[in-house]
Amino acid sequence: MKTVTWLAMAIAGLMLLSGSALAQPPAADADDDQAVEETTVQSSILGDAIGEPVIDEIVITGSRIRRDAYSDSLPLTVITNEQALLSGLDNVSEILQGSALASGVQIDNTFTGFVVSGGPGASTFGLRNLDAGRTLVLLNGRRFTAAGTRGQVSNVDLSSIPFIAVQRIEVLKDGASSVYGADAVAGVVNIITRRRFDDFIVEVDWQDDADYGAVSMLWGQTFDRGYIDFALETSKFGPVKRFEREFSTCSERQLTNGELHPSLFAPTAGRCFGSINGYADVYGIARTPISLIPDNSGNLFGLGIPWRQATYGPDGGRIVETGFRDDRNWVDEDLLPQRELVQLYSDGLLDLDLGDVLGAASATYEFYFSRREDVFGGVHRQFFPFVHPNNPTNPFGVVGGVARPIVMSYDMLDPDTHVENDVTALNLGFDGDRGDFSWDVNVGYSWSRGGWSYDSWLKDKVARSLSSGVAPDGSLQCVFDPLQMYYASGSGFEDAVLNRILSEGLDPSCVPLDLFNARAIRGGVDRSAADYISEIQHLETDYDLLTATFNLEGRLFDMPAGEARGVLGLEWRSRELDDRPSMASVNDNQWGFTGAGRTQGDDRVSEVYGEVELPLLGGRPWVEELTLNTSYRWTDYSSYGDDTTWRALLNYAPNTTFRLRASLGTSFRAPAIYELFLANQTGFASASIDPCNNYRDPASDIDSGSERFKNCARLEEQGVIPPGYAATSSVNVITGGNLDLKAETSKSKTVGLVVTPDLADYIPVLGVDLSLAFDYYDIDLNNSISRLGAGTVLSRCYSSANFTAPECALIGDRTQSGDLSFVNSSFVNVAVEGSRGFDISLRTDREFGFGDLSFDVLATRVLGYEYGLTGDSDPFQYIGHHAYPKWRGEADLRFDWRDYTLTWSMDYVGSTDEEPVYELFSDRSVTNLHKADGTLYHTLSARFVDPNGRFVLVAGIINLLDDEPPRVGWAAWGPSATAPVNFNIPIGAGYDYLGRRLFASVSYSFTGP
User: Cα separation of 949 and 965, whole Å?
Assistant: First the structure.
């Protein structure tokens, strides 16, 4: 319904403009006949306060050929600094990720607690449903370094670019690998900075939520032979805690009938999903004939601690379970983390005279620096080691056998994660003109230095501290008991941990740990014991990019319809990645945390490219313009080998009203450094992720006719799993590089129609300028490089008939006890990956005697995004699932009157729906709420510019109607096959977490226009 409403608003806006025009005298003919994308180019928040210099020739994103005007031959969307500020946006990541161009999962700061490319806090952007590695990000037409922490660093972190220095962002919605290089599979983002101006500007930005504030300054000076510019920006955001938003206060299991699941986790029972944490899990305890079941308070043996038991309702769902309620979780955990940014930018130019040979030339430089500091306020990490019955603290002894205390650990470990990332870049260049040709040479060096620190338990010290006995004085003391230590090693029974302890021998500093008391279950252990088993971990990540380019562009020869122009260029790049985790991580000695080795690798890329544009026909009846643009690139990777890419672009304009544009091109992307060399990262998933865990238990509600049930029954018949199998061991998950990866190749097709009628000639009474563009795209990738999550691998394998899914090859053999040994989640080549859809852009504007009214719309429709591991398998269709809506859109209605501007902005995220069959491991999930309705956000703003052009005030309301993100039912097995879900919300999907808030931006120019 909201989709229809949103489209109706777009139509209504057009009718409003034309209808209003009927009541006004005809306006003068407009002289702006550019296409939809280019009409949005403005200067800045100050309007004309920073004027643009007169430029004889320009280079638009998507081509290296110089032109004398913006061209609508390419599907290009331009977002200006002014547009963003009027919408309450003042950073590059929010602008791109919040636009209608964002499709698919976008990595942003909602990914707290998730392992993502670039590490915690990174912000990336991907076009056409493809991940960020297939969208090239440029700064002033040049490559910018990747940034982040941990081993998976390959993409530009958008938060490292100072917004005050940004003049506009050009987004090319077409593959351009032959023009810019292998990364430009889905498109190109080119961030253009302000330059060549005389002014000193101070700007302050503020929002009344999340403690957000920013202070910026911009200074520029021109002189006879050049210019110099400088920008500085500092900002602070957050944190925003879970309890500060109603939708995230309590994780829920909502049902499709609008009710909550009547489980022990339901808020109606006074508890949130996952809030029961403090208790003891006892294995092998005999309930009869020896009665050990505690009373309703769960007070076992008078110890004051609960142990795990449950009462089941008629539907099999647990409705009562003993345990201490975790009330601090929702208070302490961050919904959005704290962030502090400091950013610097400077550029300059000096004109030179290089004599008769090279002629007039210029020397240029660009310098960038950004420091990002994030603090992720976490909650306690659950601590649940096995304790052997010989340990005197284990009250269950030989009757209960091994036991596990489930400890909240609030006072045992600092749950916060600290990330610091410095990004520095320096570009030096020379450019000049000689006759009909222009040339430029550029050398750039940029580097990222990331650090990540966190507190972690050590497996060997946990095992030592849980191997204890009674001292002669009756106190607890550490004992060197291999059996006790073996039970308590890591997630239990880890040979490597025990062998390391035995080789090292006694540790005189060992402090015994008693976890079987009410205080300990709540995390309140002795400080000396907590300090002994924990250690601050430090990780450092370096990424370096060195580039050198040479371009020669100019007139080749004359044709009847104009000049044939061409480009010849050389490019060389060196990339190095060095990720250095702590020794505890390298040795896989972190309890309850992933282990990882050192990831180190480098690559060298050499390229030769060319581009030719031929004006085939022009100025004839039915052929106002017919132009062919072709480009070709040869690329050689030292890590892989060489290949070529090409693109052909045809533009046909029968007259000044209509233009057809079409392109066909290829791409080639060798594996990224981390995809090749990522050292194995070992983690673990809960035992409940095992598809056969309690599969015969009526409480599991697993359909006996499902493929999952049949496959587990087959394993039971073969003796692979025991009767009544219940998983007892966490599942090892391995993620690493793959030296056998093949290069990605792709072919992309685009077809577009641009309509720019001069309505003043046809219907003078309207007085409305209209521009309309439609672009269709189709991208097919072969040997796409990707990785599947452990849950996805297990789900697809066990949901296939007789284990025939290709994902089954990524699962290790089961152990003697029947548990899963490992799941391989490393990088693989995917046989089938494709994306197709279309964009619609509309712009109308009307000049009145008292002001100007304009209306802009951008809508994207995704027709398909398929993903299949092998050519023989049925591809998985992502469209319609969380983070992959069929429709996204944005619209701006703007009125300019004298020194005032009023803007109404709308952003739409379409509905999504998870098919229950894709939810993991339980047919009960069909009752979980798995549909997210479409969401329409509104922003109102007003701008005032004083008559002298020095003082500018922008103020408004973001998310006017205070729309919350759509909630989906939380489930232990995961409610989404395509996007992570946190706090009942699909994350990275374009939803607003902050709600209604005021914003203001104040700037002052000390020089004036």
Answer: 39
**pLDDT tens column, 528-555:** 999 999 999 999 999 999 999 999 999 9
CA pair distance 113, 132, nearest whole angstrom: 20
The span from the CA of 632 to the CA of 610, in Å, is 5
Residue 459 to residues 401, 493, 495, 496, Cα–Cα distance (Å):
22, 11, 12, 10
DSSP label at 806? G
970 falls within a domain = no
pLDDT tens per residue across span 779-794: 999 998 888 778 878 9
Q: Which of 206, 198, 218 lies closest to 344 in space, CA to CA?
A: 218
Per-residue pLDDT tens over the stretch 714-737: 999 999 998 888 887 778 888 889
Do 650 and 778 share a domain, yes or no? yes
Q: What does the pLDDT read at residue 611?
A: 97
Overall number of domains in the chain: 2
Please provide residue 267's backbone torsions phi and psi, each rounded to the nearest 5 degrees: -60, -25
Contact assessment for residue 655 and residue 885, using Cβ atoms and an 8 Å cutoff: no
Assess whether pLDDT exceeds 70 at residue 31: no
Q: Which two tokens stand for residue 9?
A: 């608003």
Strands, E assignment, 173-225:
187-193, 199-207, 213-223
**Number of Cβ atoms within 10 Å of the Cβ of 400:** 19
Q: What is the pLDDT of residues 463-479, one digit of tens each?
A: 999 999 999 999 999 99
Range list of β-strands (E), 621-657: 623-637, 641-653
Omega of the bond prior to 239 within 30 degrees of 0, cis?
yes
What is the C-alpha to C-alpha distance for residues 382 and 393, in angstroms, rounded to an integer? 19
Q: Is residue 404 part of a domain?
A: no
Pairing verdict, β 822-824 and 731-735? parallel
Do 734 and 756 share a domain, yes or no? no
Same domain? For 768 and 737 the reply is no
Closest Cα to residue 104, out of 77, 135, 126, 121?
Answer: 126
